[in-house]
């Protein structure tokens, strides 16, 4: 087997590079031909990865977090080329959805060398200009995208606690935003929701922000997406809701609703959506599910 191993282009001399080196050594010990791919930017890394796929690698692996995994997803979606993940990022939420988050470099490499794969869905975003992009875990808009704005601007601390601090700071300025949401349910029925929302989140996976279970029951292989809408309430009431979000039990409170959908169009003025932890575009956006679009390596039972 020949594998192209993509490394986070923003951390070529840092921790990701060391993890990638250990993973590559482990793969080679299994007899897997492994070439490390890393450009000077996301665009260059994507171009190098496309070239490797065109040349004929058998699989793609990623050493990094959700953003780096997202780069690889764009290249392998719908191709049948399997994707392996060596979790090495801040959040690793997509890896968590696949049961890979806690794997170290050697265990993740072993899963790739083992050759066991499964097919999962991807979510596809269509922007107002018609351009598209896939994501694997969660798209956030509203309060949670503002949290991402703040968390990404913070230099300290690292890890999931950065998101916790950003949540508390943004909470002080929390206000509802006028949304227009058009959704298609699993049975093909269409509905429209209008009015103020605190947030509108679309999940192919379960968690974001380093493990927050915003879509606690999402199944990345069920052919559907989970849509979470939260309506405004008093600040004290919403503060009491936060611990339920961290436990994944928020779906039972009156201000929150979780629906299974095939597609959803989100529109709100001045709101930028994030997907897999990175900005993906300003609303309005349409998100639909692409069943079985991605083949991933999974640990052997």
Q: How would you explain this protein's 3D organization?
A:
With 301 residues, the protein is of the alpha+beta class. It folds into two domains: 2-115, 3-Layer(aba) Sandwich (Rossmann fold); 132-290, Tumour Suppressor Smad4. It contains eight helices and 15 strands. The strands form two sheets. Strands 5, 6, 7, 8, 9, 10, 11, 12, 13, 14 and 15 form an eleven-stranded antiparallel β-sheet that branches. A four-stranded parallel β-sheet has the order 2-1-3-4, sandwiched between helices. Strand 8 and strand 9 form a beta hairpin. It starts with a strand and ends with a strand. The mean pLDDT is 90. GO terms for molecular function: ATP binding; ATP-dependent diacylglycerol kinase activity.
Brief characterization of the structure:
The chain is an alpha+beta fold. The protein has helices at 15-29, 42-55, 66-76, 93-97, 105-114, 143-153, 160-171, 235-247, and strands at 2-7, 33-37, 59-64, 83-87, 117-126, 132-135, 138-142, 177-185, 190-197, 199-203, 225-230, 256-268, 272-275, 278-282, 285-297. One of its GO terms (molecular function) is ATP binding.
SSE topology:
Elements: E1 2-7, H1 15-29, E2 33-37, H2 42-55, E3 59-64, H3 66-76, E4 83-87, H4 93-97, H5 105-114, E5 117-126, E6 132-135, E7 138-142, H6 143-153, H7 160-171, E8 177-185, E9 190-197, E10 199-203, E11 225-230, H8 235-247, E12 256-268, E13 272-275, E14 278-282, E15 285-297
Parallel strand pairs: 1-2, 1-3, 3-4
Antiparallel strand pairs: 5-6, 5-15, 7-10, 7-13, 8-9, 8-12, 10-11, 11-12, 12-15, 13-14
Helix pairs in contact: 1-5, 2-3, 6-7
Family: Belongs to the diacylglycerol/lipid kinase family.
GO molecular function, one term: ATP-dependent diacylglycerol kinase activity
EC number: 2.7.1.107
């Amino acid at each position: 087997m020949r594998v192209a191993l993509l490394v986070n282009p923003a951390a070529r001399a840092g921790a990701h590079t060391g993890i990638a080196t250990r993973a590559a050594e482990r793969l080679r010990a299994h007899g897997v031909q492994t070439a490390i791919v890393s450009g000077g930017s996301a665009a260059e890394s994507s171009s190098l990865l496309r070239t490797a796929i065109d040349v004929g690698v058998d699989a793609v692996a990623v050493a990094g977090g959700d953003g780096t995994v997202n780069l690889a997803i764009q290249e392998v979606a719908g191709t049948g080329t399997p994707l392996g993940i060596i979790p090495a990022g801040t959040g690793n939420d997509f890896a968590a959805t696949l049961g890979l988050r806690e794997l170290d470099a050697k265990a993740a490499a072993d899963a790739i060398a083992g050759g066991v794969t499964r097919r999962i869905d991807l979510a596809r975003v269509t922007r107002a200009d018609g351009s598209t992009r896939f994501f694997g875990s969660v798209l956030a808009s509203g309060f949670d995208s503002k949290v991402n704005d703040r968390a990404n601007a913070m230099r300290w601390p690292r890890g999931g606690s950065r998101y916790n601090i950003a949540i508390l700071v943004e909470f002080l300025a929390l206000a509802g935003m006028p949304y227009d949401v058009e959704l298609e349910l699993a049975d093909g029925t269409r509905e429209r929701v209008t009015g103020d929302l605190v947030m509108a989140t679309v999940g192919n996976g379960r968690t974001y922000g380093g493990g927050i279970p915003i879509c606690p029951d999402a199944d990345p292989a069920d052919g559907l997406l989970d849509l979470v809408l939260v309506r405004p309430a008093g600040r004290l009431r919403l503060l009491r809701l936060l611990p339920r979000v961290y436990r994944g039990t928020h779906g039972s409170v009156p201000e929150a609703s979780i629906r299974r959908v095939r597609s959803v169009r989100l529109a709100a003025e001045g709101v930028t959506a994030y997907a897999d932890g990175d900005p993906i575009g300003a609303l309005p956006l349409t998100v639909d599910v692409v069943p079985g679009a991605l083949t991933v390596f999974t640990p052997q039972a």
